[in-house]
Amino acid sequence: MRQPLKEVWERFGPRLPELAFEPGLVAAVDQHAAAVRDVLGGAETYAHTLGDYIVGFLDALEEADWREHSGYDFASLRLTAVSWLIREHRLPLVSHPL
Predict the structure, then answer these.
(1) DSSP state of 90
(2) Is the separation of the CB atoms in 36 and 85 below 8 Å?
(3) SS3 of residue 63 by DSSP
(4) What are phi and psi of 67, to 5 degrees?
(5) CA-to-CA distance for 61 and 46, rounded, in angstroms?
(6) Where are the domains of the chain?
(7) Which domain of life is it from (predicted)?
(8) Which of these, 4, 5, 2, lies nearest to 85 by C-alpha position?
(9) 83 to each of 8, 38, 98, how far by Cα in Å?
(10) In this structure, how many other beta carbons lie within 10 angstroms of the beta carbon of residue 78?
(11) What is the pTM of this model?
(12) CA 98 to CA 87: how far, in whole Å?
């Protein structure tokens, strides 16, 4: 079973410490986090809805043949913002089937 929160956290969570040194990066990640929050609605649903959002986003990146790199583009900023949301809301990385 795919674990999208864990997948994104492992790949983009390590980028979060960079926010301490880059004010422009903080602003960009904050804007992306706000955009994700707008799509998902209230924080109380993030544990359930963020995983579905990530799966759709990652699928679209795969279709576009996007490749992760060390810099920041729209996709890497969005996934870093998702990692920030995971951390800030202490979301479980592994979902359990009902």
Answers:
(1) T
(2) yes
(3) helix
(4) -125, 135
(5) 21
(6) 4-88
(7) Bacteria
(8) 5
(9) 7, 16, 24
(10) 23
(11) 0.91
(12) 24
